Amino acid sequence: MKKALFLWGVLMSFSLGGFAQDIAIYPMNWWVGMKTKSIQLLIRSTNEDFSSDKVLINYPGITVSKTHQFTNKRYLAVDITIGPKTLPGDVLIKLAQNSKNREIKWPVKKRPSGLGTSYAQGVTSADFIDLIMVDRFSNGDESNDKVAGMRDQSLNRMEMYDRHGGDLQGVINHLDYLQGMGVTTLWFTPVLENDMDNRTEHGYSITNHYKVDARYGGDEIYKKLSNDLHQRGMKLIADIVYNHYGSCHFLALDPPDADWVHQWPTYTQTTYREQPLFDPYASKADSKKMSNGWFDRMMPDINHENEFMANFIIQNSIWQIEEFGIDGVRLDTYTYNNLEFANKCNQALLDEYPKLSIFGEAMVHGVANQAYFEQNNINTPFKSNLPSVVDFQSLYYGIIPALTQSFGWTEGVNRLYYTLSSDFLSKDPMRKVLLLDNHDEPRFYSVVGEDPAKQKIGYEWLLTCRGIPQMYYGSEVLMKGFKNPDGLLRSDFPGGFKGDEKNAFTGKGLTEAEKANQELVRKLANYRKRSSAITKGKMMHYVPVDGMYVYFRYDDNQTVMCVMNTANAPKEVDFSKYDERTSSFKTAQNIVSDERVELSSITTIPAMSMWVLELQK
Predict the structure, then answer these.
(1) How far apart are CA 423 and CA 425, in angstroms?
(2) What region holds the Glycosyl hydrolase family 13 catalytic domain (predicted)?
């Protein structure tokens, strides 16, 4: 039964003599009533060449404007328009393949209800994201641990770069835990098929843009997860890749033409240097190598100047949002794209889904460098329309030096102050996605020397600073690990797999420090949901003094004062020094400890600690 459904859903094709398994159409379906009405169908045969580019569609409301042939005769592209009066149904597409006249069934569907309210609703500063690597979170269905016919048959939790067996059912099984932790939004590394020879656990080498990986449970379980999240009032972020796909993708193994990816005389990797894209003194050669070089040997670099390839990516991005009920999009390796194309694709998504959130991975160094890739206030020839970015600057040059460097004029917590002071470069800093760690960065607990007090400060900052906080699965229970040499930053979530001695879902086997940090995150994240000052309010901060940094989140209804002492000694807190924000209040309640503080007195904050205080009259 599953095989029959797979053939129907993916191939969508039949001949006059019965089902044909050798022709596929991308996108595999569309919807009536979309703003994106002009579609370019890519038709692919895995068998015989197409003998003619003549394509006929006789379906009310749909017109064919142009067809295209390629050097590889197993492909055709067909430009169609879906008129406003088109009704849902199965469209018959007639074409010629050698001596055969073929008919392919291509569905146009009715759009789901709830656009902008129950899907494509956007992710805001009121949300709390949890980034999960599905393969490493929880194994909810052992029957899909290995899938016959797929290249990667590894399944060994003792090897960090093999598959471990986590799946989407495992996530569904633990939604109560995630919601209880205050998480409102889930972001997964890509869940689309990665039929590569090895290293398929991360998901970024996509081999089929129109199929959820069977080892995660396939399309239907992903839709169920999306529905379950929305029924809980939670949201879903898709990790979309404009820049590359896997070397085992059919477009790489059997391309329509040679120019669908960037070709070099010999393998040429990107420089990973973003500066030539905005440097007024940069050479064209450096700019080209940055954008057109391959991110990895196993990840062919997409040529966005090829209009067919560009259309394929744009249409697939829209298709994923509509098909799976996506609320926000994280864009992988954003800085390596053709940025004019990226603007075009971003705009297509925003035209179709005005409330959709889009944030890009701009893993660069320098606040201005990062701002260049998002909507900004910088006068440069190229202007990005990307609404937001993952804020690596507040990580690299903010909270990490704040907790790992001694205080100095440009060191320690002053780095965090300086970095946040540069928010004037961005159009809307509240859209930035804050982080302590992710699947490419070392676990924060390891970075701060496995110091629970510093980890606690990290989360208190993450959940109170401006922007959208993003947690990385397991860091709430002090998971540790570096990227090199062993990749332990991608270890399994404790309790997600049969036989685990520790279980973070139940608390079994956790140390007191692990439980304490987990409870801190749970308490503060759930408080954050109710805090208008943190989720919607303004921010004011004061110049750090002797390792102590004070900032406020406030609106007309609430004021939250955050006191961060990064020194190795206790510090006096004189609330009168901050009377711009404190003068109308008498007391404060510590949100984490529930203790009350009199603002008329001078009190002492312990070394290496942070207070989150709600001021009260």
Answers:
(1) 5
(2) 131-528
Over the chain, what is the mean pLDDT?
95
Instruction: Name the domain count of the chain.
Output: 4
164-222 pLDDT per residue, tens:
999 999 999 999 999 999 999 999 999 999 999 999 999 999 999 999 999 999 999 99
Same domain, 206 and 166: yes
Active site residue 440: no
Q: What confidence tier does 83 reach under pLDDT thresholds 50, 70, 90?
A: very high
Task: Please tell me whether residue 68 adopts helix, strand or coil conformation.
Answer: strand
Q: What is the rounded distance in angstroms from the CA atom of residue 375 to the CA atom of residue 397?
A: 21
Which residue is catalytic, options 135, 152, 361, 437? 361
Structure tokens at 135: 């393969």
Quick one: pLDDT at residue 485?
87
- Per residue in 265-281, pLDDT (tens digit) is 999 999 999 999 999 99
Catalytic residue among 301, 332, 423, 514: 332
Percent of the chain with pLDDT over 70: 97
- In angstroms, the Cα distances linking 154 to 146, 175, 200, 273, 440 are 8, 27, 9, 34, 22
Task: Of 86, 85, 103, give the one whose Cα is nearest residue 94.
Answer: 103
Same domain, 81 and 158: no
Q: Name the strands in the sheet holding 538-541, side by side, starting at the edge strand that comes first in the sequence.
A: 538-541, 548-554, 559-565, 609-616, 587-590, 596-598
Confidence check: pLDDT of 316 > 90: yes
Answer left, alpha or beta for residue 43, where phi above 0 means left and psi between -120 and 50 means alpha.
Answer: beta
Q: Which domain holds residue 573?
A: 537-616
Q: State the burial class of residue 58 (Cβ atoms within 10 Å of its Cβ: 0-12, 13-18, 19+).
A: exposed
